DNA sequence: AATATTATTTAGACAAATCTAAATAAATAA
DNA sequence: TTATTTATTTAGATTTGTCTAAATAATATT
């Protein structure tokens, strides 16, 4: 199956939005891809034709088994390139996403597998997301919640779900990265903001918006 | 200047065909790009508009200074990726061209420069072609002639000008790669074929066609 | 349940990059 | 120099991926 870049991007975003088995709506996908709902409808027809998604008018989209397979390949390439950029080229955490968005579209299994080997077959990427292996299998992510939901006091950052440059740069500035341990000092119910403290840093208050995108597990 | 992949490919091929200062013809460019002359004409208008080429109807194409600069960036990326694939991922000589054709279109100066550094700032690629530096400067290739023109008897392979998989695989099978030393045993005037011998291999006869694409210098 | 709102799809248009077929210019041969 | 061949360009069509505006379906509200 030969996919265009546009098709790959749609498949990848459907995969991303389809947590569990929920259907993905036209609007959500358009928002995720920074495009228009009408364009998504067009693409949905094409991807249905190619049997990569299940789609009925007005009923939303889910990946077919083949679509999921394709998505996992793309995700694999994306996350391996992120590892390469961080581990080998010394890019920082927040810079690699956009570059990986481009590199992931070089569709060569041989290249992908050689790259993985070269990197020591890593199983998580620099954001803490698991990397599918050549067959699409990936380690089940360890249980984690978003920072605003966490009930433990001492936590470790395991992933960041919003990969926008703005958020990642913000976290970087605050000394927060994967594996960073932090302590929750207070919850402010008024605006759901949270006061946290990272070792050797002054305590900071972060908005609910930000907290939602920081995944943590108790430490 | 933001170039599309199609535009980059045209610029690169014009650069390749424009040896010295000769103009590049519509037909030659169409052949090189495996497209049609009419398509080249269309693209020429666009590239002229963007001031990357000099072009007058029926008078052929040359790169403008900005066009040459763009071409050198693309060539730099291409050759660095080839180094990466061969040196780091253990790809063989003849496999890397097609992959580099894709990777070269990731236009990030930071990535390119980091990659170069990671590779130890190489100055020639696995085919023996010089790699432009970040400013577009590259080592003047050492004097070389094609194998069919060479007058010395003992030669070393410095480059291969035709990067087709077929030729590279052929050379690989015959044990000929960059740096291989060979000896010319005979010229056959009848069909301009050449008998050559590589150390520890039986002598072989190669056609003029092949010989033209093997660049050598006396050793 | 009827109405209003929101989500989705359709219809028709557009830009990029390509093509074929026809027209025209340039080069070559008679 | 005229005729023929070759090279190039133009005109108009096609495909892919996108868009806007209008129409329709689904959902929410009164």
Structure description:
The structure is a homodimer of 219-residue chains. Chain A is α+β, with helices and mostly antiparallel strands and 219 residues long. Among the domains of chain A are: 5-63, Orthogonal Bundle (Arc Repressor Mutant, subunit A); 145-218, SH3 type barrels. Chain A has helices at 5-17, 26-32, 37-49, 65-88, 96-103, 109-118, 165-173, 208-212, and strands spanning 53-55, 61-63, 145-146, 154-160, 181-188, 193-198, 204-206, 214-218. The first copy, chain A, has a 6-stranded antiparallel beta sheet with strand order 3-8-4-5-6-7. Chain A has a two-stranded antiparallel ribbon with strand order 1-2. In chain A, helix 1 crosses helix 4, helix 2 (26-32) packs across helix 3 (37-49) and helix 4 (65-88) crosses helix 5 (96-103). The longest helix of chain A is centred in the middle third of the chain and has 24 residues, at 65-88. Chain A is globular. The model of chain A has no long low-confidence stretch (mean pLDDT 91). The interface between A and B is medium-sized, with 17 and 17 residues. The first copy, chain A, binds a DNA duplex (30 and 30 nucleotides) through helix 3.
How many H/I helical runs of chain A? 8
Which shape of chain A, going by the Cα principal axes?
globular
Structural class based on helices, strands and sheet pairing of chain A: alpha+beta
Between the first and last Cα atoms of chain A, what is the distance in angstroms? 44 Å
SSE arrangement of chain A, N to C = HHHEEHHHEEHEEEHE
CATH fold label of the domain at 145-218 in chain A: SH3 type barrels
């Amino acid at each position: 199956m030969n996919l265009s870049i546009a098709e790959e991007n749609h498949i990848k975003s459907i995969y991303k939005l389809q947590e569990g088995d929920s259907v993905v709506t036209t609007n959500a996908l358009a928002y995720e891809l920074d495009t228009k709902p009408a364009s998504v409808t067009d693409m949905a027809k094409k991807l249905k034709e190619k049997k990569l998604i299940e789609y009925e008018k007005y009923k939303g989209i889910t990946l077919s088994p083949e679509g999921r397979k394709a998505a996992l390949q793309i995700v694999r390439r994306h996350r391996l390139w992120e590892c390469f950029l961080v581990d080998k080229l010394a890019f920082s955490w927040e810079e690699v996403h956009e570059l990986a968005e481009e590199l992931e579209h070089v569709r060569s299994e041989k290249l992908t597998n050689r790259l993985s080997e070269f990197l020591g077959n890593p199983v998580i990427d620099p954001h803490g997301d698991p990397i599918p292996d050549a067959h699409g299998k990936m380690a089940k992510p360890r249980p984690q919640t978003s920072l605003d939901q966490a009930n433990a006091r001492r936590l470790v950052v395991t992933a960041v779900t919003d990969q926008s440059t703005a958020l990642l740069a913000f976290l970087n500035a605050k000394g927060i990265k994967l594996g960073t341990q932090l302590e929750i000092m207070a919850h402010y119910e008024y605006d759901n903001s949270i006061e946290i403290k990272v070792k050797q840093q002054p305590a900071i208050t972060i908005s609910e918006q930000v907290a939602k995108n920081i995944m943590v597990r108790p430490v």
